[in-house]
Give the backbone structure.
Amino acid sequence: MKILIAADMEGVTGVVHWDHVSPSHAEYPRFRRLMTGDVNAAIRGAFEAGADEVVVTDGHSAGRNILIEELDPRARLNAGGPVPLAMVQGVDAGVNAVIFVGYHARVGTPHAILDHTWSSRCVANLWLNGQPTGEIGLNAAICGHFDAPVIMVSGDECACAEAAELLGSIETAVVKRAAGRMAAECLPPEVTHAAIYSAAVQAVSCLRAGEAPPPFRLQTPIAVAVEFVCSEMADRVMILPGAHRPEGKRVELTADDLLTAYYVFQAAVTLAGS
Ligand SMILES: [Zn+2]
């Protein structure tokens, strides 16, 4: 049994500010260590419940956050980027299920730590098939495209609620309760690591028992709609073949399948931010 742990940083233990997740800031090294700790707790849980193989993908920013020297030696690490499958790099390599660690709510969620969708600078909203979608939904759908269910999520209370609403009976580990976008009641690592470990044990045990939620799939073709932060971003994205622009800041595209939709969205955000 092979488990992919897809890790982001905004939903990691103790993170409440962009400074905590930005390599240029003095506080960042502390939170790299905390991110590695959250990931290690999930690795321990997955192996405890019988996983044969655990691969971790560092999905925050340039993918250079997790401290490999402190990583559980039984795991392997996908680090760096860009790579086509981005935050879930490796999900196409025979993965049985996926665990999201350190995830965050989609852009526009009230009282959610650092709520955003892919790029807080560029993306004001994302819809897939008309449904507002964040990184949880987008990445779960690409996992579903490769037949892998998401079985567990850790993050703040809103991220866990978003995942449960979208994906059904998955395990969640709440590491903080947000009072605003940059304020939360945070649980210390000793507590969150125990919660992440337990949730991972439970999730992988359910998977082994054949009781995991089904892979999350969207009906094809996929309608991708992005509202950008400003209209000049949409100007740049309009060179993508098949792009429509019903409003100044909104661009719509259609993709034959979810993998294409994932690439189209990444291309659009890259163009918008260039
Ligand atoms: Zn993110």
